[in-house]
Design brief:
The protein has 139 residues and is an alpha+beta fold. It has 3 helices and 5 strands. The chain has helices spanning 69-98, 101-121, 123-129, and strands spanning 4-15, 18-26, 43-51, 62-68, 133-136. The protein has a 5-stranded antiparallel β-sheet with strand order 3-2-1-4-5. α1 runs antiparallel to α2. It is elongated, with a radius of gyration of 20 Å.
Length: 139
Amino acid sequence: MTNIITHQGIVENINGSQVSVRIIQTSACSACSVKGHCSSADSKEKVIEVTDTSSSYRVGDSVTLVGTTSMGMQAVLFAFVLPFFVLIVALFLFMALTQNELYAALAALAVLVPYYYIIWLNKSRLKRKFSFTIKPINN
């Protein structure tokens, strides 16, 4: 298994050292020959912001975005795994304190609000940590 994630895209916009690249994100089964008969095949366009100081790209250029799988695994950890454990721990804690399932569930869900707020406050730090590099496609 490779440790590199690559996406091909097209440069949409350049603002100083910020390059906006449009990619088409597809599910693993979107290349399947029977995808027309299945509801799980999907694709969507996304715009990824990349910091590039080389200034060698122009709008419309085909490029490859390169990242690491460890970056993707950390993103999944922060976005899904840690909040799940926070939710479960909070649910059991509030259940023991209140003895009321409804209040315990609502309080456990409310605990996620500060968690995601802290993530939002640290978005500039996380943006630096979870950044793609950009490479030209040689035709």
